[in-house]
Every structure is written in structure tokens, then in C-alpha cells.
Amino acid sequence: MSAMRLSLLLLVAAAALSARAAAQMPPFQGGQQGPPVVPAGGQVQPQPVAGGGPLSPEFYSQSCPRTERIIAEVVQSKQMANPTTAAGVLRVFFHDCFVSGCDASVLIASNQFAKSEHDAEINHSLPGDAFDAVVRAKLALELECPGVVSCADILALASRVLVTMTGGPRYPVSLGRRDSLSSSPTAPDVELPHANYTVDRLIQMFGAKGFTVQELVALSGAHTLGFSHCKEFADRLYNFRDKGGKPEDFDPSMNQSYAKGLQAVCKDYLKDPTIAAFNDIMTPGKFDNMYFVNLERGLGLLSTDEELFTDPRTKPLVQRYAANSTAFFDDFGRAMEKLSLFGVKTGADGEIRRRCDAYNNGPMPK
Ligand code: HEM
């Protein structure tokens, strides 16, 4: 790709993102009762649900048969109005599942009595549009079948709908999750991967939760959508030093034109922390395997992205997914199915929230 085309792409990307930058997750005002910010590689085994049998795609077939259709209508129209919704929802889902399981704990708002996962630094950049999509779906479902569909199931189904809508695979989603009775403000910063982690640390973190190296790489393909703020990759662009401490203009694993373009786009990021760049500069709104093709060309945005192409344990998988979109879709779908069953709450360990940002019994029932 020519340097000029790359620079143009970066300019377009920066312009497209400026509108989105203003729409980050709104800080929740402690104690206010105003309008809800957030109301309301192998065979995956079904998870047991205490008192209700295993999770099942048919879970709501009697109690709320139009569940999937209602969620799809709401989030698809949200995505059409705000095309960055899909990426936001997918990231919120990952941040929910990796911290205490897929239980909507990430949706709980803070209040004057207790802080929630919203307050963890890593979650400050979760976009308001993603929460709004869930809010709207919950409201529509509460009108149709009150108190039946969990917020955790809404998030799982919304993610699948949006992955499919942006061109990605349709994978099975079992239903019957219950919503959490707690939400820790400290766990997300510990339990979620950060952009400065080594591949070693990523493998360890995913491994500790039962995910393989292959699943780590496949799931990272979610970075085919959405964007990252400059602070997440600025250390690759400015005052970069190699492992021996030698100063470089930028991280030499980056394509030169790409790095220079990003240096220009991000130059004021300390004054304006909302500046961001697309994770997949080539096809940012399309769920495809371009993320992996980009890594081969030095067009990975985060160092955790690009390092998947340098580490010998992950490089062959990057190459496979870059060459074979079907292999990526198959593995991504299976890994998402597994992620969506991670640590689900069942029976008395959870509840069906009336609104997704608050426990039914007040600020902190436990
Ligand atoms: C492998 C380790 C991972 C790291 C280190 C990582 C890190 C990040 C960072 C730093 C951002 C930018 C956030 C911002 O500046 O707003 C981001 C965005 C994103 N991440 Fe990840 N992530 C990882 C894995 C995942 C996984 C497994 C998924 C989903 C299955 C995912 C989905 C996303 C999406 C869709 C975005 C774009 C969000 C948006 O546009 O609002 N990430 N990630």
C-alpha cells in the first residue's frame, strides 16, 4: 500500500472518529435517580443451570418467544444510526464475561453506596452507545414479557446479532444466564488484558480462565472492529526505545507510513484524550479477517496486536487466519460460544434484573 493511501485512510479514520469520541460511557452521578444510564477449539458443553436444566438456545421459547427478534430489531437500528455500536457492544460483552462471568455485572451503575465495574479505569472507555443499545433492548423486552429476559442474555444475543450484521459468523448462543448480585470496581483492572501486556502474559491470563492460545488469537480478531484511543498505543509512536534501550522514531515492527500517519493523528492526544484510530485501518466497520492481514504488514495498532505476529506461539495462527477467512470465522465463532458460557450465574446466584443498571433489591443487596 502506498504511503499516500495510508495517510489518507488515517485522515478519514480520524475524522470519522471525532463524532464517536464524544460518546464515551457517561459518568454515573452517584445517587441520582434520573433517567437510567444503563437501565434496566472444540465442542462447547452446555452449562448447568440450578433449578432450570442446561442453558439452551430455546430457553425463552415459551416465556418470551420473540426475544431474539426484539433484540435484533433494537440493536440493528441502533447500529444503523451509530455504526460504532457493534464494536462497543462486543467489547462490553468481553469485559463482562472476563470479570466474574457473563452476568451483566459490567452494566451495574455506581451510586452513593457502592462503586461498580464502571469505575475501573479500563472500563472508562466503554462507549455509551453500547450501553444504550442494551437499555433499549431491555425496555422493549420488559414491555413484551416483563421480568423474564436477563440482561446477561441480552448482552450475549446483542453481541451475536451485531457480529453477524457487520459481516461476521453466526455462532450458537445458549440462553438462561442470570444477572449478577455484585459488581466489583477493582476486578476489571486486574482481570482484563491491557494494551502493554506481553504475549506471555496474555497467554497466561487467558489460560488461567481456560482459554487456549488459539482461542486468544481468534478472539483478538474482534479488533477487526472499532477503535483505540491514542494513549493505548502512544508508547509505540513517541520516545520509543528498543529492548536494549536504543531510541527509535517509532516501534520498528510498525509499517513506516502507518507509524508516521499515527504520529500525526495522535500528536495532540495529551491535550485531547478523545483522539482515536481504527483498530483495523483497512476495513474498520466490517467484521472480516483483515485484522490478521494487517498484522502481517505491520499495520497492527496495539502492541498486543502486533506481537501476536512476532511471538512464535501465535504467529502461525495469525498467518492461518490471514490466509483463510473461513478458518478465522469458524474458530472465532467457537471461541465466542465458549466465552459466552464463561462463569454464567444460575439459580439463586443471580436474578433477572428489572433494569440492567441496578439490582432489584436496591443499591447493593449483598
Ligand atoms: C487479547 C487481549 C486484548 C487486549 C490487550 C485488548 C485491548 C483493547 C484496547 C486497549 C482497546 C481500545 C479501547 C479504547 O481505547 O477505547 C480495545 C478495543 C476493543 N476491543 Fe480489545 N483487547 C483484547 C481482547 C479483546 C477481545 C477478546 C475482544 C472481544 C471478543 C475485544 C474487543 C474489542 C473491541 C470490539 C474493541 C473496539 C471497541 C470500540 O470501538 O468501542 N478485545 N481492546
Automatic annotation (TrEMBL):
GO terms for cellular component: extracellular region. Residues 54-360 form the Plant heme peroxidase family profile domain. Residues 1-23 form the signal peptide. The keyword Signal applies. Ca(2+) 2 binds at residues 224, 280, 283, 288. GO terms for biological process: hydrogen peroxide catabolic process; response to oxidative stress. It holds the Pfam family peroxidase. The record marks 91 as: Transition state stabilizer. Disulfide bonds join 64-145, 97-102, 151-356, 230-266. Heme b binds at residue 223. Substrate binds at residue 193. Ca(2+) 1 binds at residues 96, 99, 101, 103, 105, 117. It is found in: Secreted. Gene3D superfamilies: 1.10.520.10, Peroxidase, domain 2 (1.10.420.10). It catalyses: 2 a phenolic donor + H2O2 = 2 a phenolic radical donor + 2 H2O. PROSITE patterns: PEROXIDASE_1 (PS00435), PEROXIDASE_2 (PS00436), PEROXIDASE_4 (PS50873). The keyword Signal applies. Residues 39-49 have a biased composition (Low complexity). CDD domains: secretory_peroxidase (cd00693). SUPFAM superfamilies: Heme-dependent peroxidases (SSF48113). Belongs to the peroxidase family. Classical plant (class III) peroxidase subfamily. Removal of H(2)O(2), oxidation of toxic reductants, biosynthesis and degradation of lignin, suberization, auxin catabolism, response to environmental stresses such as wounding, pathogen attack and oxidative stress. These functions might be dependent on each isozyme/isoform in each plant tissue. This is Peroxidase.
